[in-house]
Q: What sequence folds into this?
């Protein structure tokens, strides 16, 4: 049969629409927390964990993060690929570290595995559950440079548009019996497809900018999402920050 | 390509974040408000390209296109790649938040440097359109090679015992260099015929260079 490896791989990695919706279409307790509180707590916890070097604490954090994810019932099928991708990289370390440093290599690899998995789960639980445009707004409210927040909001929008445009072009190529192989033809076809994608998207961006100028755009975006910081959010934020401080103090000792 | 969280040491994380912050600040200063939509387009192209797999030998690699980012965006490659890597971290779980600075620097610094060199060459040789794709491809391949070296260095500096894995990761960049060079050269050739002002003028900004 025809070799449709490339699109198959792409969709296995996560169709973009699906990726954008991955963790936001299943309501759970974590989704009710103010995104700003979640971002701050996530940053604090990750920074604290990055400084921790005790394996037992890291393993406990991994277990706690996993428990929290199970409690919030994040969809496991979408969670597994990212965990697998991380651990494939860590496997490299497991394979090589004991050869280079026979005494401590395996122990260092174990520490890194616990740390990396715990951090990935915390990031997934706290930040991946924020809808992408709400994330842009939350970051803007948190005083991230304005242009950076705008770039994020535009990118979230364009990435979706470009992905569907790419899918359409890819379907058209396949309908004309294009089969990706390792040859000149494939490379030329793929680079022309990406070039065309770029040209079309730049033209689209110019049209959008012109339309926005027509409506009075002068580099200032109105932030539409305004979040309400309720007492539950304050409790969550304080607990999270206390946890992070505890981790930092306890783990570094 | 992406270094994941939890494996780099504190000094490497802080150093990478500091260097990346300088680059991002420079990029943001260069980026005017009307440049944001076109910059976002390049960020999205980078994002989509990372889902496009190109066959090589018995397996396939996914594209990075950091070199193209550098050629088209210059310093703005820093904020563009920062946003793209941030989105990849939260949407796909590649990389992470504490390594965001290191990963941004690893990709964006070589891209900005070799991109500037390639664009300078194209501007001073406006008639040599047959050689311009070659230059763009070489810049992209060199950018990937440097990114691979930086990634390996970040790992090696963090943990001596990670040197073996760092070597393997750099070795994995060699086929990627060839693919990136070929694809970027192809894209540059295509752009020169279809929309040459993207390469010869101010890249992806509207009204000429501002350097």
A:
């Amino acid at each position: 049969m025809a070799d449709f490896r490339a699109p198959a791989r792409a969709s296995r990695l996560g169709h973009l629409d699906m990726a954008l919706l991955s963790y936001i279409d299943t309501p759970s307790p974590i989704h009710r927390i103010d995104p700003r509180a979640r971002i701050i707590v996530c940053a604090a916890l990750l920074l604290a964990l990055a400084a921790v070097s005790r394996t037992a604490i890291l393993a406990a954090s991994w277990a706690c993060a996993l428990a929290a994810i199970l409690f919030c019932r994040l969809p496991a099928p979408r969670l597994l690929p990212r965990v697998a991708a991380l651990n494939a990289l860590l496997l490299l370390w497991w394979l090589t570290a004991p050869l280079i440093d026979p005494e401590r290599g395996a122990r260092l690899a174990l520490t890194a595995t616990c740390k990396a998995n715990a951090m990935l789960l915390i990031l997934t639980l706290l930040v991946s559950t924020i809808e992408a445009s709400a994330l842009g707004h939350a970051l803007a409210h948190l005083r991230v440079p304005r242009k950076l927040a705008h770039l994020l909001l535009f990118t979230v929008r364009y990435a979706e548009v470009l992905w569907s445009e790419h899918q359409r072009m890819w379907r058209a190529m396949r309908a004309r019996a294009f089969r990706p192989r390792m040859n000149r033809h494939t490379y030329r076809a793929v680079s022309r497809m990406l070039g065309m994608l770029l040209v079309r998207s730049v033209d689209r961006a110019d049209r959008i900018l012109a339309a926005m100028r027509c409506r009075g755009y002068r580099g200032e975006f109105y932030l539409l999402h305004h979040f309400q910081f309720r007492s539950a959010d304050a409790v969550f934020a304080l607990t999270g920050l206390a946890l992070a401080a505890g981790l930092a103090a306890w783990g570094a000792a | 390509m992406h270094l994941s969280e939890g494996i780099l040491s504190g000094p490497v994380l802080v150093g990478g974040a500091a260097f990346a912050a300088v680059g991002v600040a420079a990029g943001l200063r260069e980026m005017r408000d009307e440049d944001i939509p076109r910059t976002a387009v390049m960020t999205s192209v980078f994002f989509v390209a990372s889902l496009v797999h190109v066959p090589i030998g018995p397996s396939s690699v996914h594209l990075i296109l950091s070199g193209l980012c550098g050629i088209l965006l210059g310093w703005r490659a820093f904020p563009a790649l920062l946003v793209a890597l941030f989105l990849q971290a939260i949407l796909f779980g590649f990389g992470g938040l504490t390594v965001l600075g290191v990963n941004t620097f690893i990709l964006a610094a070589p891209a900005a440097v070799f991109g500037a060199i390639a664009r300078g060459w194209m501007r001073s040789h406006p008639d040599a359109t047959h050689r311009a794709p070659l230059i763009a491809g070489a810049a992209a391949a060199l950018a990937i090679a440097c990114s691979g070296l930086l990634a390996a260095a970040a790992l090696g500096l963090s943990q001596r015992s990670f040197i073996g894995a760092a070597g393997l990761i750099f070795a994995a960049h060699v086929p990627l260099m060839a693919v990136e060079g070929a694809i970027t050269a192809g894209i540059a050739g295509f752009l020169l015929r279809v929309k040459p002002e993207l390469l010869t003028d101010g890249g992806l900004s509207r009204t000429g260079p501002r350097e």
